[in-house]
Amino acid sequence: MVTGLWADLADLVLPADCAGCRERRPGLRHGVCPACAEALGALRPRSVRPTPAPPGLPPCVALGPYAGPLREALLVYKEHGRHGLARPLGALLAEVVAAAVGVARPLALVPVPDTAAAARSRYGDHLDRLARHCAARLNRGGWAVRVHRPLRALPRPDSVTLDSAGRAAAAEAAFRPRSAAPIRGRAAGAMPVVVLLDDIVTTGVTLAAATRVLTATGWAPGVAAVLAATEKRHLS
């Protein structure tokens, strides 16, 4: 309690870099300044589809383009250790999931896993943190949600060094199932909708590869929910 209270008080008086615009400002709440919070709050989930879409890519919904405050917040969260952003980003991801699924129903959230090396460098799996905050937000809203981790990520080369064919091949070999056990409903006749989660979609090859492994083991995603879609791909 004391630690949490001190953190809240410190937010009010100590300047910090806004995660959205990188400006140093006092009184930040949840890591972003009021202007960036307003910009993030104005985003509305929409269907996205890379062109061309890889085989097996499920319907995908994103909060917005990978640009502006959303891009900056994701970068500082993933690459600069601003783990406190997991809560507000997870809340935004919950909005995407709700829009993607529509009517409240039981959900199984499956985050795309980090490799062991990436998790070590980021002091934990960054998407797993987002998924837990996303689930908590949805549960408070009356949804029946659990986070599942049926996938494990294998070591793979840095995508920056690869062309499009190389990235597709690396994604295809990137995942293995943790268990062959199929998903079961939490209650009789209430099979949960499997929602595949990621932070960013670019070509869609990662989501498609994860979907193929999940489908083969009885965890076929009904939809994918992401925070951002790269602008070079078309929003529809």
Features:
single chain; 236 residues; alpha/beta; 6-stranded mixed β-sheet; two-stranded antiparallel ribbon; 8 helices; globular
Largest sheet descriptor: 6 strands, mixed
Helix content estimate? 25-40%
- Helix/sheet category: alpha/beta
Helix count from the secondary structure assignment: 8
Span from first to last CA? 45 Å
| Radius of gyration based on Cα positions | 18 Å
Shape: globular
Question: Mean pLDDT across all residues, rounded?
Answer: 82
Order of helices and strands: HEEHEEHHEHHEEHEEHE
Number of strands: 10
Query: pLDDT below 50 for ≥5 consecutive residues: which ranges?
Result: 1-14
Question: How would you explain this protein's 3D organization?
Answer:
It is built from eight helices and ten strands. It has 236 residues and is of the alpha/beta class. A six-stranded mixed β-sheet has the order 3-4-10-9-5-6, with helices on both faces. A two-stranded antiparallel ribbon has the order 1-2. Strands 7-8 form a two-stranded antiparallel sheet. Helix 4 packs across helix 6 (126-140) and helix 7 (164-172) runs parallel beside helix 8. The protein is globular and about 50 Å long.
How is this structure best summarized?
The chain is of the alpha/beta class and 236 residues long. Helices cover 38% and strands 18% of the residues.
Task: Give the arrangement of secondary structure elements.
Layout: H1 2-13, E1 16-17, E2 24-25, H2 34-41, E3 46-48, E4 60-65, H3 68-79, H4 86-101, E5 107-111, H5 116-121, H6 126-140, E6 145-147, E7 151-153, H7 164-172, E8 175-177, E9 193-201, H8 205-216, E10 223-229
Parallel strand pairs: 4-10, 5-6, 5-9, 9-10
Antiparallel strand pairs: 1-2, 3-4, 7-8
Helix pairs in contact: 4-6, 7-8
